[in-house]
Structure formats: C-alpha cells, structure tokens
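Reminder to self: tokens first, then the designed residues, so the page reads top to bottom the way the pipeline ran.
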C-alpha cells in the first residue's frame, strides 16, 4: 500500500535575527519571501489528501502575507501550522494566529514580556 501525503512544509520566508543552535534553518539576514502567486500555484498542485501545511519562516514579521496564506489554506480545507521563536509576536499577529493558525509552536520561550504575553494569549491547542 502506498503512503498518502497528508502534511507538507513550505518555507514562505527566510531571514532571522536569531542563531539558535538547534534550528535547521540557520541564521541569515538575507530575507526572501514567497509571493502569494507562487503560494497559490503550490496549493493548486497539492493532492486532496494534504490536510496540514507547516508554514516555515525565520522571523514571523518577514512574511507580510502570512495571515492571508493561512486564510487561503483554510479556504481549501487545509490546516496551517507554524513554529516561531516568539520574538516578534505583535498584538495583530497574535490575534491573527488565534483566529487562523491550527497550531503555533514556540521554539524559544524567553522571559521577555512581549513573547511571554503573546504566547499566553494564544488559544490552547486542539486535540487531534
């Protein structure tokens, strides 16, 4: 029996101010961002079995279309998820993630007030 593709990861932007030793993405200030046209082209080629997309990026604020990408995932019945270092979670991003993101993982949890408050405001995860 062949496997069914249910999950993919897309790197929708690069560039990160952190240099975390555990991160596979690495440190770069050279930011490139995926366009909405390319994102749509990828979504259009996915098999219907894909139920979840992990949206990858360095800093969360370097992909200006992140929330719109999540909306487009939902329109196709796909759950968007992210992992973030939590350093640039602003109030508008937290509100957007609470509404649109199926799962938000914070890979670096510092005691800085902005990060702590943003993470605490995110809704609890949904059980599978």
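Designed residues (128 positions):
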């Amino acid at each position: 029996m062949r496997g069914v593709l249910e999950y993919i990861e897309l790197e929708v932007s690069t560039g990160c101010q952190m240099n975390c030793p555990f991160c596979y993405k690495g440190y770069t200030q050279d930011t490139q961002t995926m366009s909405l046209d390319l994102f749509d082209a990828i979504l259009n080629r996915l098999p219907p079995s894909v139920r979840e997309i992990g949206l990858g990026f360095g800093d969360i604020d370097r992909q200006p279309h992140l929330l719109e990408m999540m909306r487009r995932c939902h329109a196709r019945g796909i759950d968007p998820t992210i992992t973030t270092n939590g350093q640039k979670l602003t109030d508008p991003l937290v509100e957007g993630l609470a509404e649109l993101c199926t799962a938000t993982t914070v890979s670096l949890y510092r005691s800085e007030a902005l990060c702590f408050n943003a993470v605490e405001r995110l809704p609890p995860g949904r059980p599978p």
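The first strand starts at residue 7 and ends at 11.
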